[in-house]
Structure formats: C-alpha cells, structure tokens
Amino acid sequence: MHPERLIALFRPRTAVLAAALCASFVPSVPAWADDSAAITRIERNLASRVMLKGAPGASLADEMKRLNVPGVSVAVIRGGKLAWARAYGVAYAGGPAVTPETLFQAASVSKPVTALAAMRMVEGGKLALDADINNFLTSWKLPAGPEGAKASLRQLLSHTAGTSVSGFPGYAAGAPLPTVLQILGGQAPANNKPVRIEAAPGAAWNYSGGGYTVVQQAMADTAGKPFDVLLAESVLKPLGMRDSTFAQPLPAAMKARAAQPHDGKGQPYPGGAYTHPEMAAAGLWTTPSDVARFALAVQDIQAGRLKGVLSAELARTMLTPIQRNYGLGFGIEGQAPRQAFGHTGANKGFRSSMLASFDGDNGVIVMTNGDNGGQLAASLERAVAIEYGWPVRQPKVREAVALSPEVRKTYVGRYESPVLGGFEIAERDGTLALSMKGGPFDTLHAESDKVLFMLERDAELRFEDANGGRIVGGPLNAPYKRVSL
What we know:
It is a single chain. The chain has helices at residues 13-22, 36-44, 60-67, 110-123, 153-157, 180-185, 209-223, 227-236, 252-255, 279-282, 288-302, 312-318, 373-388, 405-411, and strands spanning 50-52, 71-78, 81-89, 104-105, 285-286, 331-335, 338-347, 350-357, 363-368, 396-398, 413-417, 421-428, 431-436, 441-448, 451-454, 460-465, 468-473, 476-484. The chain is 27% helix and 22% strand. Helix 3 packs antiparallel against helix 13 and helix 4 (110-123) crosses helix 8 (227-236). A hairpin with a 5-residue loop joins strand 15 and strand 16. The protein has 2 domains: 105-388, DD-peptidase/beta-lactamase superfamily (Beta-lactamase); 405-484, Lipocalin (Beta Barrel), CATH 2.40.128. It has an 8-stranded antiparallel β-barrel with strand order 11-12-13-14-15-16-17-18. By secondary structure, it is α+β, with helices and mostly antiparallel strands. It starts with 12 loop residues before the first helix and ends with a strand.
C-alpha cells in the first residue's frame, strides 16, 4: 500500500444484499479454540478510524449492507500461523456463498508479490537493483527521462523512478486486449498513456503502476518466459499459494471459484471481472489465505527462519522505507520495533488489503468484491487489531456533543473544496451525514457547534460560518464553501 493507503448483471442490488446477509461462512482453516469468541466479537464490532468514546462498533452484516459489498473474505495470522479464515456473503447474486477458497482480484497487492520475485532474480544475479533497467529489457526500452535520466529496479519497485501512469483501469469482457509492449508504449488498444520517466529518478515518491509494468517486461525478457509462468515458478508454488495465479484473463478452470466485481451501489459490472495484462501491478487472482502464506513467508525470511527463498538481508532491504514509508513493494507503518508491512489494492469491483507485523508474526488480509470494500476492509483490520491488542491500526477515540435540530439544519447543503471536490451534508434520522463525491453517507458528529468530525476519516469540518470553513486532518488543511442548499 502506498502510505495514504496503509499510509478504493445478475440481480438488483436488493437481491445482492439480501443474499449477502443470509449466506453463511465456510471456514477452510480451523480457528484456535480461543478464537471462536474473538471472531464473534470482531464480526459484531467493526471499528471506524475514529470511534466515539464508549460506543460500540458496527456489525459486519450492517456494514456490508450500508457499503453495498456483496462478499468479503478474511484470513488472520497469529503467532506465525494462519490462525483462522472466514468468508461472508456471496460471490454474486444468485451465485454461491463466498468461501475462504473463493478467488478475488488482489489488484495492487500484486506488487509486493512481484517485488519478491524480482528480488529472487537479483539474488540469482539475473537482475541488479541499481543498474539501468534497460540493461535487462530486450523487447522494449524505457526512453530516457529529463536530462537523459535512467531508472533502476530499486527505484521502480519503490515508486521513486519518476515514471508515469499511476494505475490501470483494466479491460472489460470482450474488449480488445493490448500486449504489454502496447501498454508500455501507450498504443491502441491500450487505454493508458505511454510509460515514461517524467521526473528525476530518486528525487520524489510517485506511485506508478507503469513502473511495475516496466519491471514485468524486464523480468519476462530476462527469464525468457511469460510473466505468469515465472511468478508461479518463483513465488506461488514455492510458498504453497495453490489458489493463486497471475494468468490474465483468469483461466476457465478457475472461473467457477471466482467472485464477481460490483460497483459502489452493489450492481455487478457487466461481463464480470476486468482483465489486467499489467500483471505485475494488478494481475494477481488469489485468496486471503494464500496472501497470508505470502506474508508469513516474508516474516520468516526476514527473521532468518526460512531459507532457500531469499536471503534475510534482501528481505530486510525490501522492508526498509526509501521514501514516504514505502520500501521495495511494501508500505511500512509504525515505529521500530512495532512496525508492520503491507499493501492495499483497488481494481474495478474489487478491494483488498494485507497487513502483517515485523515482530510477533501477526497479520490480517481482507478481500472484497465491491467498490466500497476498501472502507470495509479497513474497519475489519481495526477490529482485528483491537481484539488482539496489536500496536498498529488502533482507532482514535473522540467525544461528541448533541446538536439542536436548529443547528443541524444550518449545515445541510452541498459544498465544494478545491482540494477534495464536492460533498453533501444531509440530515438523516435526526443526525447529520456526509457523502463525498456521491459515495455512501457517513455519520457526522459534533465536537461543538462549529466543529463536525467524521468516523471513517480522521478529519474534521471547522465552520467559520454557516457557509463554509476548512477541512483539517493530518497534512490536509483545505477550504470549502457551500454552493447550494
């Protein structure tokens, strides 16, 4: 995950949600005896980024309904083991219940898996971290950037190469599929601009899926085999990730086990999952349990417990932040010795998240098949972190005061911010709620008559008068104003 993210055709929506709430989970990993009660508490008490003092969290079922997420799958690591896995809801309306074996698109969680494979090639002498990446590209060359700048593998894996194209939208069913060379060149039928060095390599952090596609081609050129085959041989099979593949589109034999993507209203995307030839950046199909096996391997390698995959030294290099708390394929959060590594992912209709500790060998992986699933995944992560007392992902606690009906009405309307765009404040069931850019409504709470705060974002609206003020939170400090009632 990059730091701001560490630190996204079957039946009508009502049918999707009803099926999602009624479907039972099917565990593939038996829970520890003392985990059963913990799982129930997690399911009943999802945690927002900001919690009201003394207030319970929302239930998983209620949040799936509110966020229009048909299915979610979770795996939890405890004490260096895959402790339990659970799945909820449905793969699609009228379809099977989600199980821990249901496949999801991992989206950008593909990047750390790619990075590990690349580092294995570095250790084997087939790639080099700090040489010009063009030394390893035979079928295409990355054009030089400003003043002849060249990019290295280290820079590409850490998003510091100055390369363009932050992400890829994918290709709908039936759409012409470009080759990777067409994607890199920005040539039809590719739907992205060319991948180029636009800024001085090493100067700044700039998230670039395009850079990972350069790495994909360099790895395939050097190995002399398709990228999905290379990743299966070098990472997926050695780590026991039997339910995972980088093949795009998903092979027919695996489609029956795949969840289908849904938009923010819970509607399925026509034709099903989008195809991502940009496999290194976004192409992995997998399960939370398999991603947990990957995270466990990284924990074991960097601790010196697992030999033969990668040296502990290179694993620690991957987990060392270069800029903006991002290493080689991983976002890093927390302070030593209480640190965690991970990544989030967002493809059309899929949201995923991986978080694992450096020490203590704990972690949680969440995968969903809805565009609002990122918020759900984050709430589940916090609920797990609270339950097991982890030092990361603990929510902030605030107190709220009640607003009179007269004061509430003064804030109802539509607003614009030059930084965040449009948002709406509405009164719903006697409380204020905010919708950002037409998304789901989040309840607003009041610190005072002039300060409103959100639970899903650690940010607050500071009203200077009834028509506007400033949104403040972390590095954010932006004006907003009312544009209509």
